[in-house]
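Dataset card, provenance and construction

Sequences and ligand SMILES were collected as paired inputs. For each pair, a complete structure of the chain with the small molecule in place was predicted and serialized as structure tokens. The example below shows a pair involving zinc ion. Curators did not alter the output after generation; any descriptive sentences attached to a record were derived from the structure itself.
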Amino acid sequence: MNIYPQNQYIPYTYLIGWSKLDRWYYGAEYGSKSKIANPNNLWNTYFTSSKHVKEFREKYGEPDIIEIRKTFIDEEAVRIWEHKVLKRMNIPKDERWLNKSDGSWNSLNSEERSRISKERMADPEIKARMIKAQKETMNTPEYKLKKSLKSKEMWQNPEHRKKIKQINKKPETIELKSKAQKEAQNRPDVKAKNSKQLKEKWSNTEFKEQRLILQKEILSRPEVKAKISKSSKELWLDPSYRLRNLESRKNAPVFYCECCKRFIKGLSNWKSHLRSNKHKKNLIGVP
Ligand SMILES: [Zn+2]
């Protein structure tokens, strides 16, 4: 006889007992994600989340007391009630009870905590809310100050310094960092910021002049020249490079210089022609 409507979210508290052994368990079902809490589940599809109960069942068989104690409208209400009952009856400290915690977050072991966290994070709405809250906390001046003070304090510790240095040297750390960097560089806001900064720099004539002088100076260095010539020779030995180069030349635009009366193939060749002394001479000679 089911007095509770099926397939409806009805969180509830329950009591399980092995009366002849005088062992008890008081708990609550309130999940709504992977399994919807409903009193009809108790000892049909739901057998508590306690591993102590699981062990006890395996050893001594099924309980003879299976009782729904109270139903609630939401998770918060049932959790508060469960916590209150466990605390008031001092259940976690009583050896006749299989409950090892009072249901509060602090009393849970790491396994139970991670299970609850996972359940919560499975809900996209809760996840988004938690990430937002975390970001907001991390953006407060107090948090930043605390974090910076903490890391400064920790940096004073030679052991900690050594550990961090070792971690940073690990290939997986380096890989992770470069991956994060690449990802950051691809973010639209970062891209926009970088390009804006670069544009600002290059719009500064002094910066531009200095950079061009530096570039020219670097390119005129014998070792740089040798390197470029060597690498282009090496490249030219690669048949696929040669093929690509020839193909791109085939499609290169052809320019005609009116002053010099000659055809020039390729944009870069055309540009260097315009800069050349030969062309400049002819330019002066044009009426
Ligand atoms: Zn010309």
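Derived descriptions for this record:
The pocket of zinc ion is lined by residues 257, 259-260, 273, 279, 282 (CB under 6 Å).
Residues 12-108 form one domain.
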